């Protein structure tokens, strides 16, 4: 399925919509009277087609009046971390407005891309972009971080706009904000947890489980840097695998949001339980050859495992191999039919 839905209402808009659909590889939606001519998907009422499409396309482009668009999308708005990018432009493509999800949805980026195609002007109104300073939600999104408490973004971005110092607790420098002059805002590095000042806005980067404090102005970011190595018996159900991962993360105070991928041996490619577990957790599933796994030294090799699959370790070796760091956070742990180890990516 394409990622971009493009809507138009007039013949002029339909012509521009066809150009954008071709260039952006999107689906074009037009009223029935126009759809056949432009090989578009027909609709009777814009309100109805948007209701069907709003959660399915991460990028929504409207060639229509902004007021109409506001009315049709408003019933479907949820949160800034899950709403799609919404762009509005006139049927001449003169003004391309980033209307919704400018940062997290990349609407600002899409507006600029469309403006280049139409020869028009991208209209960007997010405060940090207007001021020419970075927004923390965009920085986090670009690095693939999970934002735990969306509401705290406002405090940090406001501090950036006003020149107020922003605390950064990032002991492994995963956000890469050490050089504050290059970033264009005032950064205060916090080396120890005890040095954090609750009254100041700041960013806390961690792969450990952490609950946001509603009283403080602390934005919690989870980098995707934990690799779960998995071994399992043939036919192991996805529910058992997912529960083993969830309970192990919970018991070791690891943030499930920081899970980057599942990793296992090539011989498990046919296991539907592993594929389904990865899908449920929203992460990719990677495979390693026996020779790759044999090259990894593990703390708990097993003769039994070696007898059955030809390597002395699956879960620990797969976790360490994929993480590339050699730092095992959770050694081999097991359920009835599966084993799990967790490694930290360097």
Describe the fold and architecture.
The chain is α/β, with parallel strands linked by helices and 346 residues long. It is built from 14 helices and 17 strands. A seven-stranded mixed beta sheet has the order 3-2-1-4-5-6-7. The longest helix has 14 residues, at 11-24. It has three domains: 4-125, Rossmann fold, CATH 3.40.50.11220; 136-222; 226-344, CobE/GbiG C-terminal domain (Nucleotidyltransferase, domain 5, 2-Layer Sandwich).
Please supply descriptive tags for the structure shown above.
3 domains, 7-stranded mixed sheet, 346 residues, Rossmann fold, 17 strands, alpha/beta, 34% helix, single chain, 5-stranded mixed sheet, 14 helices, Nucleotidyltransferase, domain 5
Briefly, what CATH class of the largest domain?
A: Alpha Beta
Tell me the number of helical segments per DSSP (H or I, 4 or more residues long). Answer: 14
- Radius of gyration in whole Å, from Cα? 24 Å
CATH topology of the largest domain, by name, is: Rossmann fold
Q: Structural class given helices, strands, pairing?
A: alpha/beta
Average pLDDT: 90
Assembly type of the shown chains?
Answer: single chain
Summarize the structure.
This protein is an alpha/beta fold and 346 residues long.
Reconstruct the topology from this structure:
Layout: E1 4-8, H1 11-24, E2 27-31, H2 32-35, E3 41-43, H3 46-53, E4 59-63, H4 66-73, E5 85-89, E6 95-100, H5 107-118, E7 121-123, H6 127-131, H7 136-142, E8 146-147, H8 153-162, E9 166-169, H9 180-183, E10 187-189, E11 202-205, E12 218-222, E13 226-232, H10 238-251, E14 259-265, H11 272-281, E15 285-288, H12 290-294, H13 303-309, H14 315-323, E16 327-334, E17 338-344
């Amino acid at each position: 399925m394409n990622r971009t839905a493009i809507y138009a209402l007039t013949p002029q808009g339909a012509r521009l919509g066809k150009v954008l659909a071709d260039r952006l590889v999107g689906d074009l939606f037009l009223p029935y009277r126009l759809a056949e001519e432009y090989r578009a998907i027909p609709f009777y009422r814009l309100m109805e087609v948007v209701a069907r499409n709003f959660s399915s396309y991460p990028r929504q482009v409207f060639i229509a009046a902004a007021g109409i668009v506001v009315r049709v999308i408003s019933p479907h708005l949820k949160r800034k971390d899950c709403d799609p990018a919404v762009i509005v432009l006139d049927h001449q493509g003169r003004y391309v407005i980033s209307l919704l999800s400018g940062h997290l949805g990349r609407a600002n980026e899409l507006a600029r891309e469309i403006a280049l195609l139409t020869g028009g002007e991208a209209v960007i109104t997010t405060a940090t972009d207007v001021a020419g300073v970075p927004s923390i939600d965009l920085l986090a999104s670009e690095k693939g971080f999970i934002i735990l408490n969306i509401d705290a973004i406002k405090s940090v971005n406001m501090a950036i706009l006003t020149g107020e110092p922003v605390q950064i607790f990032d002991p492994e420098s995963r956000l890469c904000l050490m050089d504050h002059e290059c970033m264009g805002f005032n950064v205060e590095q916090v080396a120890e947890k005890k040095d954090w000042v609750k009254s100041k806005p700041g960013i806390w980067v961690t792969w450990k489980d952490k609950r946001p404090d509603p009283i403080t102005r602390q934005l919690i970011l989870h980098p995707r840097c934990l690799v779960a190595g998995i071994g399992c018996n043939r036919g192991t159900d996805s529910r058992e695998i997912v529960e083993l991962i969830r309970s192990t993360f919970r018991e070791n105070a690891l943030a499930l949001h920081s899970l980057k991928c599942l990793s296992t041996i090539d011989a498990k490619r046919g296991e539907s339980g592993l594929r389904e577990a990865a899908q449920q957790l929203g992460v990719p599933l990677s495979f390693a050859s026996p020779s790759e796994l044999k090259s990894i030294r593990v703390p708990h090799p097993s003769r039994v495992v070696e007898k059955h699959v030809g390597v002395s370790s699956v879960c620990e070796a797969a976790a360490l191999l994929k993480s590339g760091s050699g730092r095992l956070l959770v050694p081999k742990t097991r359920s009835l039919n599966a084993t799990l180890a967790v490694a930290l990516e360097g």
